[in-house]
Amino acid sequence: MSDLEMAATTELGARPGEVPPAAGGTPPPKTRSLAGDAWYDLRRNWIFWVAAALVVLVVLMAVAPGLFSSADPTACNTRRQYAGPSGGAILGYDFQGCDVFSRTVHGARASVLVGLFAVLLTGVIGLVFGMLAGYFGGWLDALLSRVIDVVLGIPLLLAAIVLSKRLAADRSGSGIVSVVIVLGILGWTTAARVMRSSVLAARSQDYVAAARMLGAGPLRIMWRHILPNALAPFIVVLTIALGTFIATEATLSFLNIGLRPPAISWGIDIATAGKHVREAAMPLIAPSLFLTLTVLAFIMLGDAIRDAFDPKLRR
Amino acid sequence: MPVMPEPILRVENAVKHYPINRGLLLPKKVGAVKAVDGVSFELRPGETLGLVGESGCGKSTLAKLLMRLETPTAGRAYLKGHDLFRMRAGDLRRLRRSMQMVMQDPYTSLNPRMTVADIVGEPFDIHPEAAPKGNRDMAVRELLEQVGLGPEHANRYPHQFSGGQRQRIGIARALALRPEVIICDEPVSALDVSVQAQVVNLLERLQDELGLAYIFIAHDLSVVRHISDRIAVMYLGRIVETGTADQVYLRPTHPYTQALLSAVPVPDPTARARRQIIRLSGDVPSPADPPSGCRFRTRCWKAQPRCASEEPPLSQRAVDPHPSACHYAELHQVIA
Amino acid sequence: MTYQQYPHPTHGYPASGESQTAPVVAGWGDDRSASWDTPTAAWTTAPSRARVERPTSGEHLLDVRDLRVEFDTRDGVARVVNGISFHVDPGETLAILGESGSGKSVTAQAVLGILDTPPAVVRGGQVLYGGEDLLTMAPERRRQVRGQEIAMVFQDALSALNPVYPVGWQITEALRSRRGIAKADAKRRAVELMDLVRIPAAAQRVDDYPHQFSGGMRQRVMIAMALAMRPKLLIADEPTTALDVTVQAQIMDLLATLRAELEMALILITHDLGVVADVADRITVMYAGRVVEQADVHTLYGAPAHPYTRGLLASVPRLERRGQGLHSISGTPPNPIAIPQGCAFHPRCPYAQQMCRITEPTLLRIGRLDRASACHFPPEALDARHA
């Protein structure tokens, strides 16, 4: 027997949100939803603010790179090869004489686009599969578990190589579509599992039984009662996945099976600069640093949101 | 005594067995947990039937069967003449308007992401044909008022309320469709003593105003005594004794009822000396493997060989004119 | 009637620094438990619950004075225990009665030193055990007292027992770690302890795991565990709330019998007025982290001197009568974050006056020693005036 169990049984800990009734002279309760509670926690978390600031910065770069650098990232001139910082090019020039800072800023767009669409795809697949498997269970659930096992068995690199060569529609383009599809097809399993387990937890709640007793159909129960209560961990997983997708995109591009020039991507720039790192380090350092910070920002954001939503960590 | 009205709910031999399966690939049924094993009773309009028994006696499973949250294994349950147990989804949906349930735990029975107005108004969304003509908000406000909550509560979330208030919200939701029967499954056992009385009084007032019939399930025999007209005592999936509240409480003839009543703590220290507690040995046997014959015999101090071989029927006994399932039913007054 | 400040007995405590190791209990068990293992029940009267004679010195076994505990929460500071004073004498049964949020469990946890800090903070007061303050004594000594002389039984036996160890092993864990007894001895002692708490076939079940026991039996295992060091004080926090009525009666009987057999003091923390009436000698009623009434059990039930106690007693449905609507206390217990000013009970009190909204009533002695109420207008006085 330990302090932990005692803590669980303290009268205070049992009902954290309990508020006295308006009747009886006590002050009226503060109106705050569960999301409001989470927001209250988030506001006090400095990690959240750092992560959020970084995310906003990266998204801003992706949407409006012109705000940060007026130079054209494709206006390269080999005569400026490895030139030092000058004028707007605060980080100097690379092997091909391109503005390093401008290229790094413009590289954010590819990363954010790939991350967002991959997350959208995994989110939709994971939500539908997880919800159906969790709600209906039985053979559907068993089938889903096998499908997940199969998907987990597919090596990422192999799938990326095969798909980038096969997708005719994307062959001429920058390769974004095939990268998104690879990430989406291979990345949804975690999201589906998380969704499934939180649907299972929500489904056994009394309020779901109450809705069934009122005669509510499966769609209404899933939409009104289960989804809102199962969404928080799912969103956390997707936020973290966004960071890892961006990192994976860079890896694939680095290996030449992701995005292709003329697309501007941190992965491509890292690959190119890596070959010439002895001549100049900045063209390698800048995109690497931005990539690392971006990935870190999304993962920290996911962690902060999880902490805010997880009632077990609440005091 | 006035003529007995027709029962609004008649349950005949309700059975719920949960299969116990073994084997991973081809699961084989190796047994069954006999949660409810042949229960029959009637409920008349406007009356309260108290269902008492210890955990595992099947009283909550019975409630779930009647609400069709679980599929019954056998038996019939006629609600206003229609068999609940053999009803297709569409008809069942309509019939649900006549019978609703108030659940035990006010902390988990309300969706934390919905406002009180949405929770209480949801029955109208599901049964648009039963929704009041005109303003839905008005109807919600009236329901809240009926259970003692104000219109200012409508836009708040469940976690902003105390346990007693949440139970009131649950009651308002159950009332929305104007049912004739409400099953109350341990409706006050999660509440503080000082709040329990408020909710019990509310349930009684609503019964008077709306002519509701209650099935009141509880393990607290004092609360059941207070609210019930008739009582059924359950043990291991069966009813062992039933009758009017006075018959069961004042003239119990089944040894289990007597033991149960004697064990209830009495809030009166002067009763210590004269109280006689019948101490039952051991625990309730597993419902997967109930004793042969009389199910209570393993804990009964009167058990005879006959009790192991012959199951006592729930029938009127000579000692007192109410049904009791004991071969050796005798009167023993437990409550002073 | 005159009121005076409820006095704290001021007596010198003899220094008792050296550890008072309880005598090794020999021979408890078999003979005493024989009558309990009979397969069928018998008609019996409740066991004698006569109180052990009070020591003449007047020294209390446990004397809690003005204890204050706060919790830091997201919504502000929850003042859960606001100056609680009570005492227990050797061999007596004190019931601490209160609803959820009254601070009764937190009080027990503070006494045992098992509060989670943070969020809990002990803001003040003394917990005197044999004259020594548990809150300020050296950690080594405190561990000794709390492990050996004060023990606790929890409400939820399932989560309080470790599922991966046999019960016998858990029962004697303290004996092995603190007394260093041998393995074989430990097992024999575990069987003895299980016999003591009337677990049938103890020798066969000593190596079973918690999930193999029923709820009532698990609660017995936990009691055996608490008794292993032969404590002088046993604190039972809602020991029967999760149990069925018939099992509840068994456990309460067991506690009462063991208390008498082992001559320990028992603090029973509960919300159940019925259980209290059955076993307690004295009662401390708590509301919003304060003591609102203290009295011996007969006086409290016979003539409650606080409107809260009175309302509580009236709102309990009785087995023996079918009432016409229960008396109920309006409103709900206050949130410890926003305890009403003045008397914490005033918003729910039918007798509340202007004074109650402003001034917090102190716990005042009424008539005899050992009977006190924290009310500006004790119902007794009110009744006398209206009569």
Summarize the structure.
Chain A has 315 residues and is an all-alpha fold.
Largest interface: B-C, 57 and 60 residues
- Sheet-strand content of chain B, in percent, reads 15-25%
Number of domains of chain B: 1
CATH topology value of chain A: MetI-like fold
What class do helices, strands and sheet pairing of chain B give? alpha/beta
Which residues of chain B form runs of ≥5 with pLDDT under 50? none
Organism (chain C): Asanoa siamensis
InterPro entries (chain C): AAA+_ATPase, ABC_Ni/Peptide_Import, ABC_transporter-like_ATP-bd, ABC_transporter-like_CS, Oligopep_ABC_C, P-loop_NTPase
Pfam family, one (chain C): ABC_tran
Subcellular location (chain C): Cell membrane
Please, could you describe this protein's structure?
The complex is a heterotrimer of chains A (315), B (336) and C (387). Chain A is mainly α and 315 residues long. Chain A has one domain (35-74, 106-313): Orthogonal Bundle (MetI-like fold). Helix content of chain A is 69%, strand content 0%. Chain A is built from 13 helices and no strands. In chain A, helix 4 packs across helix 13. The longest helix of chain A has 37 residues, at 100-136. With 336 residues, chain B is an alpha/beta fold. Chain B has a single domain, classed as Rossmann fold (3-Layer(aba) Sandwich). Helix content of chain B is 28%, strand content 24%. Chain B has helices at residues 59-66, 89-95, 116-126, 136-146, 163-175, 193-210, 221-227, 245-250, 255-263, 305-309, and strands spanning 9-22, 28-43, 48-52, 74-79, 82-83, 99-102, 181-185, 213-218, 230-235, 238-244, 276-278, 315-317, 320-324. Chain B has a 6-stranded mixed beta sheet with strand order 6-7-8-3-9-10, sandwiched between helices. Chain B has a 4-stranded antiparallel beta sheet with strand order 2-1-4-5. In chain B, a hairpin with a 2-residue loop joins strand 12 (315-317) and strand 13. The longest helix of chain B is centred in the middle third of the chain and has 18 residues, at 193-210. The two termini of chain B are 27 Å apart. With 387 residues, chain C is α/β, with parallel strands linked by helices. Chain C is globular. Chain C starts with a strand and ends with a helix. Strand 11 (276-278) of chain B pairs antiparallel with strand 2 of chain C, so a sheet runs across the interface.
